[in-house]
Write a structure and sequence with these properties.
- With 192 residues, this protein is α+β, with helices and mostly antiparallel strands.
- It folds into 2 domains: 1-112, Peroxidase, domain 1, CATH 1.10.520; 113-192, Glutaredoxin (3-Layer(aba) Sandwich).
- It has helices at residues 2-48, 50-57, 63-73, 79-90, 97-112, 127-141, 172-189, and strands at residues 114-121, 144-151, 158-163, 166-171.
Length: 192
Amino acid sequence: MATNRLVVKEEVAVFASVLFDSANEAGGQEAVLAVREQLGEIIRLMRSDLELTLSLSNADYTPEQRRNLVESVFADCHLALREVMAVMAERGQADLLPRVYEGFCDQIGSKLGLCVVDVVTAVSLDDELRQLIIAKAEADLGKKAVLRERIDKSILGGIIMDVNGNYIDASMISQLNRARHVLKDTSDGGEC
């Protein structure tokens, strides 16, 4: 069993390395960051679309059918990403994609010396806040920081940040949800 885990770990490392090197050769840092973003979106999509996820690893489909599925569904993605995903689908290993993403992100830090700061806000950040976030991340991590912003109006306000897997959720929606749980817990357990 340990041997199988070692083989999978090595396969994940190879997929991540091939993906990183291909993207970097194709367009440098910007291509690498674009692939990272696309890969994150694909993982979110696969978590919400069980049919797609199962189809990419379904043994009832031929490897060629799974490859064709990747080529059609992810046609707008970076070529390097499509190719790596197609090989993974052919082998029935699409479920390894989140681990490949982690390995890919590790290489951004080790090979490019970058720290990527993902920020989600309800409205666009102003330049002053952008610079403050970048400066704080660089000071704390000792690496050049790159800010990747996404707007999501559903968080209502506040900010959600993710730096190297360290997740900080200071959004209005999560604060409201915490308040609702506190109120619910106090009203369920006590008498008025």
